[in-house]
Amino acid sequence: MRKSKNNNNSNYGEKIVVSIVCETYNQSKYIRQTIEGFLIQIISFKYEILIHDDASFDGTAEIIKHYENRYPKLIYAIYQKENQYSTGVKIGPSFQYPRVRGKYVAFCEGDDYWTDPYKLQKQIDFLEKNKQVGLVYTKAWYYYQSSNKFARRPWGGSATSFTQLIKGNRIPTLTAVYRIDLCKQYYQEIQPESKQWKMGDFPMFLYFSLKAKVHFMNEVTGVYRVLDESMSHTKCLHKREAFIRSTFEIKKFFLSYARIEFNEQKIQDLMYSSLASNALHFDDRQLALGYIHSIKKSTIRVKLKKIVFNSKILTSIYMLHTKFKYYI
């Protein structure tokens, strides 16, 4: 392991510049790699690692305590005795962000990890030189845990404006670094904890894109671990459907917030198209057809989907093409 290097003679002074926020739950298999990704950072400023363990029972807490004992002035952890997420408590605004001492926040879940030892230095330097920028992010590799394979191409791309971002989130959360003041402003004004949104990053990034500039660094700095069961990746059809519906609810909310006129039917059609593709992924061709036929405005793409979904052979070819596109 390579310990972080801090240059005390830097221009950043002795104040904590960035707070790494990490949330964990039953991630004993991965949390070591996550923490090591924090510790390899070669930087010229002070930082802190804020870890929240939500009552894990698989040994995650013990691993975190081991690192906390080794780095008592760097790692600060909260160990819950009762799972807060299951009671509806939002971990970020309730436990993590109130204790942030840094000017910036770098977020990383307990199963993802960083690979670039200069990640934070490059991002903080850019934010310090560009005061109008509120969020900086990079690309990340998708790693499929069940098959032990990386995706063919890294994920993430330029979506630095609200118009680009509303079409689809292209910001890997584990790579994002953003200003804490902007983050607190988001929670105070939007109050996302009072809503039923199924994700926390996408609406926050949309808000940032309306209030400040967003910058994309075209390089890879980490790995997003795709597990069989999570909110965005799950083996449960209904959970995935709820996630998709929530995404479109968030889009409608922020279009209204930004006072941008939009066609409600068009968004509804886009949602049905997404739900159809999702149903097909779960091998439910009849459900996929049902969603496709719910679309009011039939475009050439929709017509093609109807033809494909009506044929078992074409459906199989479609699925093979999709798999080949994203996997090795």
Describe the structure.
The chain is an alpha/beta fold and 328 residues long. It is built from twelve helices and eleven strands. The chain has helices spanning 31-39, 60-70, 91-96, 119-129, 162-165, 180-190, 201-211, 237-257, 264-281, 285-293, 300-309, 312-326, and strands at residues 5-6, 16-24, 42-43, 46-53, 75-79, 104-107, 113-114, 133-144, 149-150, 177-179, 213-226. The strands form two sheets. Strands 2, 4, 5, 6, 7, 8, 9, 10 and 11 form a nine-stranded mixed sheet that branches. A two-stranded parallel ribbon has the order 1-3. Strand 8 and strand 9 (149-150) form a beta hairpin. Helix 7 packs parallel to helix 8 (237-257), helix 8 (237-257) packs antiparallel against helix 9 (264-281) and helix 10 (285-293) packs antiparallel against helix 11 (300-309). The longest helix has 21 residues, at 237-257.
Overall SS class: alpha/beta
The backbone outline, from C-alpha atoms, is: globular
Q: What Rg do the Cα atoms give?
A: 21 Å
Largest sheet: 9 strands, mixed
> In DSSP terms, counting alpha (H) and pi (I) runs of 4 or more, how many helices?
12
Q: How many domain units?
A: 2
Helix content: 40-55%
The CATH architecture name of the largest domain reads Alpha-Beta Complex
Percent of sequence in beta strands: 15-25%
Mean pLDDT, all residues? 89
CATH topology of the largest domain: Spore Coat Polysaccharide Biosynthesis Protein SpsA, Chain A
CATH class category of the largest domain: Alpha Beta
Low-confidence regions: none
User: What is the assigned CATH homologous superfamily of the largest domain?
Assistant: Spore Coat Polysaccharide Biosynthesis Protein SpsA, Chain A
Number of strands: 11
